[in-house]
Amino acid sequence: MNTGVLLQELKKWRSRTADSEGVEPFRVFANRVLEEIAEVRPKSGAELLAIKGIREKKLARYGKEILVLLNGSKDEIPNREKVLSVGELISLVNNYFSSLGILKVRGDITEVSFHPHGYCFFTMKDSQTKEHSVSCYVARWKFDSLSHLVEVGMEVVVDATPSVYKTGRFSLTVDAVEPYGEGALKRAFEALKKKLETKGYFDTSRKRPIPEFIQKIGLITSEYGAAIKDFRENLGNYGFEIYFRDVRVEGDHSEQSIISALKWFNKNVPTLDVLVLIRGGGGLEELKAFNSEGVAEAIVLSRLPIITGIGHERDETIADYVADRRFSTPTAAAVFIKVQREHLIAEVGDHSRNLISLMDRIFDNEMEYFLMKSEELKNTFAASLERYKLVFSKVVEQMSNCLSRIFREFRAWEQNLLRLVYGYENDIQRQLHLIHTITQRLLNSMERRFEGSQGTLKIAETTLLSFNPENSLRRGYSIVYNADKHILKEASAVKIGEKIFVKLYKGGVGSRVEQIEN
After folding, report:
1. How do residues 212-251 score in pLDDT, each as one tens digit?
2. Chain segment 257-309, per-residue pLDDT in tens
3. Cβ proximity of 488 and 500 under 8 Å
């Protein structure tokens, strides 16, 4: 087997051993010790002792059982001729029982013995033969959740692991208990109801208030049941946001499925307004998951308020008693939410109409006040105008006289300004005529000078052309340049072998010096 499977087997063995010894599992071996055992897979006591956390005392107590579990093969199964010690026999039997895993066993509880330390033993007898019986053990960390089911006369089905205690007593270590049959289910229901009532699960003071405004709904039910259809059809089209979680509502794993959904919504969608847990009707067997302590605790621990609608009109479940608000059917739960929304809409409508009516009254009152004040203001203004009419007339007359004087003075200034402008205009005309005369004189003088300069320029041009080297070149002369483009005037300025360039009248010739004559 692989390491993971082996680790699970080691944990099952530890659980059986702890139950048989009446201690908690970690006192047998810690998880890290079991993990190292599964990883290393020791084959001898010496290899077991090398694992941290295992000492001589625990090796002597549990070593053989662990080695048989780790290396359980045909070599470890003794033949008939081998003599076994009692401890080896018990270890061998428990190893075989471990391979069976958890078994389901049905029977009637006939005797119950409670231990002061919190665990209990009870005897379960065959429901049919009434002859066979087996001792059952419930550990103290399991007993609190199972105590209401351990009752004399109750027919139950237990999930249990068989084992043989070191004294040789055979027993079942119980992991879960379920009532069997209608009568047992009813007794278990009443017992759990009484137990949870004592714990305060049903107290009104504990329950969370349902919000007046519900928008976001977490719906928990089976995707394939009639309950979800009834709920949606009766909820109405009011824009609700529904977050759905599909769960099993009956049969194996239904209880854990519902608990997981409740926890999931609280963890992942904490902004919901309410959780709705619903399913259709049925007998106690079908509603068993809703009558479990696990579901009740999940409802109590929920931070979100919970509404239930489980079964038909006469059905009742533990989940209903624990819920913050219960309804007899899924339809009733949907109608409550719908009616609550309709009441809210109607209330908003009433408030809107009241607000409009109030605003109309306020507007009418203010308009009446405004008209009254307008009339008073008009009358006051007319009276004031009448009182100041004479004053206004005098002021107007004074203003008219002042304006007349201002206009007269303005016209006088206007005449003076026109005279000045005409005078300036005549002066400007005279100055312009003088400037024109002087300009004409200057132009005539410059024209005479230009004609004299032009004759002089022609004489200079003739003289300059006589010195143009082009004329010398045209007559057959040439100009010689050295390699640096400087004109050569003496033969001593070059050496044999240097390049020279000879410029002719048209074109030029490049050559190399072969002979120099000074």
Report:
1. 899 999 999 998 888 999 999 999 888 899 999 999 988 7
2. 999 999 999 999 999 999 999 998 777 778 888 988 889 999 999 999 999 99
3. yes
Assign 3-class secondary structure to 120-167: EEEEEECCCCCCCEEEEEECHHHHHHHHHHCCCCCEEEEEEEEEECCC
Look up the pTM and report it: 0.49
Q: How far apart are CA 68 and CA 95, in angstroms?
A: 7
Q: Sketch the domain layout of the chain as residue ranges.
A: 3-97, 102-180, 196-342, 473-512
Instruction: Please tell me the CATH superfamily of domain 102-180, with its number.
Output: Nucleic acid-binding proteins (2.40.50.140)
Look at residues 202, 214, 155 and name the one whose alpha carbon lies nearest to residue 180: 155
Going from the C-alpha of 65 to that of each of 15, 58, 95, the distances in angstroms are 13, 11, 7
Sheet strands side by side (includes 241-246): 241-246, 216-221, 274-279, 306-310, 325-327
Supply 124's token pair: 């379960």
Of 138, 106, 151, the closest CA to residue 125 belongs to: 106
Half-sphere exposure of 415 (CA within 13 A, CB side): 5
d(CA 25, CA 242): 44
Query: 187 near 151, Cβ under 8 Å?
Result: yes
Query: CATH assignment of 196-342, given 2.40.128.90, 3.40.50.261, 3.40.50.11600, 3.30.200.20?
Result: 3.40.50.261
Looking at CATH, the fold of the domain delimited by 3-97 is given as: DNA polymerase; domain 1 (1.10.150)
Would you say how long the chain is, in residues? Answer: 518
Cβ(329)–Cβ(309) below 8 Å: yes
